[in-house]
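Query structure, 342 tokens:
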């Protein structure tokens, strides 16, 4: 199976498994796990923040960040297709009791001017806006990279209005590899940043939230409250630490393969895609002749797994488990599947 459903399907390499098998462990809830401590120190240094806390998932790091920066009844500003709003099960309302104010962006990106226009005045009639969240790269925006200059402009608006700024950086590693901008530079404008180890980096479990020592101390309370306190977590943290040290640079292979795939798809009758829109490892294309779920099923029967993300929209994600030769074989299978008789 050529599995392009997501970069979350990646599995640990033999060397990563060895690092996990040899990990020294302790009770992480008591801060006694040396491998977790090493991971948190490493990722905090990498992103230029004072502290970090390791959690089971990116949804948890995002939602703990929301709870850390807000109180029930507050408002959080997000792009309309943001993962925090779209894919996290209604958690902002359920776990933090906050309202979401949405900005329709362009492929997931909005401007400082857009933000200024939705901010409410301080008035007892209105929810208090406390937090702005960005996503880089943007999942439903097609892996779009949020421009650093625009991030800095948005951060200035946040400072002006005394708002906190959080980054859902699940695929921040991809943005850094694609642009050459360091993790530290991208993270600098934000109060907190969430990063994921179990997507393109190929670790089996986990994400981290980084920020000031004070904010991460508060985040640890909510990690426990949300059920994210772990015990001998060094076994999985070792995989994340190995991934950070050995798998970041190789993300360029995924980006190159995504371009190869997009270029191969653009010449197929019945497929609509702009290769220039593919900036990282996410490839979205439109199916004009049959419903997307039918194409997905036909491709599955041919040994290729992709996802229908709309009635006529398909997503393919290049990843650690798929090599260039496999990617190059996909367009021909897509064309054959489109021409297949029912």
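Result returned for the query:
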């Amino acid at each position: 199976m050529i599995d392009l459903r997501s970069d979350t399907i990646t599995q640990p390499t033999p060397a990563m498994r060895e690092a996990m098998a040899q990990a020294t462990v302790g009770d992480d809830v008591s801060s006694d796990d040396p491998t977790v401590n090493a991971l948190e120190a490493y990722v905090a240094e990498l992103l230029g923040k004072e502290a970090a806390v390791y959690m089971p998932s990116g949804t948890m790091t995002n939602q703990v960040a929301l709870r850390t920066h807000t109180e029930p009844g507050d408002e959080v500003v997000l792009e309309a297709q943001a993962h925090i709003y779209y894919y996290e099960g209604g958690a902002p309302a359920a776990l933090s009791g906050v309202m979401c104010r949405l900005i329709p962006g362009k492929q997931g990106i909005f401007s400082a001017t857009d933000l200024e226009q939705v901010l409410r005045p301080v008035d007892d009639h209105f929810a208090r806006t406390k937090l702005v969240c960005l996503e880089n790269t943007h999942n439903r925006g097609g892996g779009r990279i949020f421009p650093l200059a625009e991030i800095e402009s948005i951060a200035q608006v946040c400072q002006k209005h005394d708002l906190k700024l959080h980054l859902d950086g699940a695929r921040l590693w991809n943005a850094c590899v694609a642009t050459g901008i360091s993790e530290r530079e991208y993270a600098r404008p934000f109060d907190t940043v969430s990063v994921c180890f179990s997507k393109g980096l190929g670790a089996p479990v986990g994400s981290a939230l980084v920020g000031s020592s004070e904010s991460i101390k508060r985040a640890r309370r909510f990690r426990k409250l949300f059920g994210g306190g772990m015990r001998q977590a060094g076994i999985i943290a070792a995989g994340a630490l190995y991934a950070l040290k050995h798998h970041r640079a190789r993300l360029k292979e995924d980006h190159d393969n995504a371009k190869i795939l997009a270029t191969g798809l653009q010449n197929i009758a019945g497929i609509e895609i702009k290769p220039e829109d593919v900036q990282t490892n996410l490839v979205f294309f439109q199916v004009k002749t049959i419903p997307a779920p039918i194409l997905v099923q036909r491709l599955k029967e041919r040994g290729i797994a992709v996802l229908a993300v709309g009635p006529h929209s398909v997503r393919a994600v290049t990843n650690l488990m798929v090599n260039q030769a496999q990617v190059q074989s996909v367009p021909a299978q897509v064309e054959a599947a489109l021409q297949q008789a029912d």
